[in-house]
Amino acid sequence: MDLAQDRALTQGIPAGRRNRDAMRWLARADMFRFLGRCFDYPTEGDLDDLTHVGRSLAAGPHLHERIRSLVVNVCEEASTRDLQTEQCEYERIFDVAPVCPPYESAFCPALKERVLCDIAGFYTAFGLTPSARRAERPDHICAELEFLSVVSVKLALATSEGRLEAREVCEHAYRSFLGDHLGRWAQPFCEEVAAASNSRLVGSSTSLLAHWTAHELRVHRVRTDPYTAPGVLPPEAEISCGMSAQPPQG
Questions:
Q1: What's the pTM value of the predicted model, to 2 decimals?
Q2: What are the b/e assignments for 216-227, b being 16+ CB within 10 Å?
Q3: 3-class DSSP state for residue 229?
Q4: What is the pLDDT of residues 112-160, one digit of tens each?
Q5: Residue 235 pLDDT > 90, yes or no?
Q6: Residue 233 · residue 227 · CB < 8 Å
Q7: Which domains, from first to last, does the chain contain?
């Protein structure tokens, strides 16, 4: 997805309006963006960038200590890994005949069309389009993480500007997407990847994603019905298609 405009919005919050709630949402945006980079294909300079971004994130005041320590673990692994080795591992796990497909619908094949429809509805409602740089399915783990980063930025803006209706719409979207999508497959996805991968960087990344998702579900009191394994549906699995509420612009 093309997120450059939404990332730039982060800089548009005046210092005087960066209250505690707004800054917490900005920290969430940074975390989701960081996690998206953890599960993206690594190219030249990406491991150094991941280390730098992670250290800045860990230095912030809004992370739970357990989450902070897991971010530090990712940074430590990224700083010592060989790029070519990590590229080969990525291709083995996620890309060429993937051992662990990084797609939500791989965990619910019978619901694939409904899941893709619902996710596309969220993205469209927030004005997001597929990236011109890289074509990817909307249920890719990186796309879902990037989407929640965008929603978090918009929540920070709405909170700092006192736009209550906009905040309510964005909070509803955040909770709904977390409960209906990322929260349903992050844990089994992380378990599958951790069991299949030989990379300590991948292992530390999956641990962070699993703990962060569980933390957000708990903090926001979102109940979800997680998938148990790729292709295995929970009882009475159901999902609606699209969003009825339209989010604020900007």
A1: 0.86
A2: bbeeeebebbeb
A3: strand
A4: 999 999 999 999 999 987 665 666 789 999 999 999 999 999 999 999 9
A5: no
A6: yes
A7: 4-219 (1.10.3480.10)
